[in-house]
Amino acid sequence: xxxxxxxxxxxxxxxETDGQGRVHHAQYLNYFERGRVELLRxxxxxxxxxxxxxxxxxxxxMHVRYLGAAQFDDLLRLTxxxxxxxxxxxxxxxxxxxxxxxxxxxxxxxxxVVACIDRTGAVRPLPDYLRGDRR
Length: 135
Fold this sequence. Notes:
Layout: E1 4-11, H1 27-42, H2 47-52, E2 55-66, E3 75-86, E4 89-100, E5 103-118
Antiparallel strand pairs: 1-3, 2-5, 3-4, 4-5
């Protein structure tokens, strides 16, 4: 089955940059979260729906590889892919590029594992609409 993916554009805001005028390295984690939220929305659900069901999706692993640098006012393209779901976890991959004419400059790549828990912190199965191996 083809991996589920969703792409969004992100305009770099001034407050997301560091003293060198580049996007602060930690900001990319916020971009990844935005990508996961919008991917869920593209399925017809919101993170609010997940929480209303008494569940939370929490990051249990995060890997980031920095390949380039983005600056204030750059318009980035983030693609978020679900590469696998299993019982209580979802694996994501991320790719952020800076489009420049007919080419894309890679900025950041990442991967995460997100676990499903309830309000007490106990691990819970993923809701049906998030299940299924997407390899």
